[in-house]
Design a protein that fits this description.
Order of helices and strands: HHHHHHHHHHH
Distance between the termini: 67 Å
Radius of gyration: 26 Å
Helix content: 55-70%
């Protein structure tokens, strides 16, 4: 997701001013002036001062939806891992900007609250996808989907924060390992409807059909064959 030079310049100007004056003391006009553009140009690229700080979450969420939509029931968990990796790669591509954001949100409570709300949007998207994949409307399945989505978000955020703090040399490999641990906690659900429907058994025998049918019925129903 490449950014225009003007958008990058505005972000650089904003973070420089936040460092110099503080977030609360910096205005949109200050940012536009430092970047050498007009107020109208600022709002063409960002909706607000706060929007300069955060990545384009709407675009990231759309990328995740697109990746999840390409999966089948068999590849659903692979799609979840790929989607989480897309988010991490976006932060890595931002580089120093992501680290500056992390430092700023750790100091400004309003921005930290905004970040928490953004995480909740990702988690909700994964929860809805996982619940649909499980195909089970029961309360226990709903809880399982919630727990799994929370674990996915936690794994991503754990690795991301380690990278932001300079504690992780290969965040992509570390995320893949973390997701492997998460998904191991949640094996694929048993296919629904396995106990219903009609079971067909085909074989050749010399026994009379009337004698054989009771035994076949007991096999299908799970009863011991005498």
């Amino acid at each position: 997701m490449s950014k225009s030079p003007t958008r990058i310049r505005l972000a650089d100007a904003a973070f420089a001013l936040f460092d110099e004056r503080g977030y609360e003391q910096t205005t949109v006009d200050d940012i536009a002036e430092r970047a050498g553009v007009g107020r109208t140009t600022f709002f063409r690229h960002y909706r607000s001062k706060e929007a300069v700080i955060f990545p384009d979450h709407d675009r990231l969420l759309e990328l995740i939806r697109d990746r999840l939509a390409t999966s089948s029931h068999r590849t659903a968990l692979v799609a979840v891992s790929d989607a989480v990796r897309l988010v991490l790669l976006h932060y890595i591509e931002e580089g120093d900007l992501a680290r500056r954001r992390y430092a700023l949100t750790s100091k400004v409570s309003a921005l930290r609250d905004r970040e928490i709300a953004s995480v909740a949007r990702y988690q909700r998207l994964f929860r809805e996808f996982i619940a649909e994949w499980m195909g089970d409307p029961t309360k226990s399945a709903s809880l399982r989907a919630e727990l799994m989505a929370a674990s996915v978000a936690a794994a991503h955020n754990h690795v991301l924060r380690r990278w932001l703090r300079g504690e992780c040399a290969d965040p992509v490999a570390e995320l893949d390992e973390a997701m492997g641990e998460v998904l191991a906690l949640f094996p694929a659900p048993t296919a629904r409807g396995r106990s219903g429907g009609t079971t067909v058994i085909a074989f050749r025998t010399g026994q009379d059909l009337d004698v054989l049918l009771p035994s076949l019925r007991r096999v299908v129903e799970g009863a011991p064959v005498l």
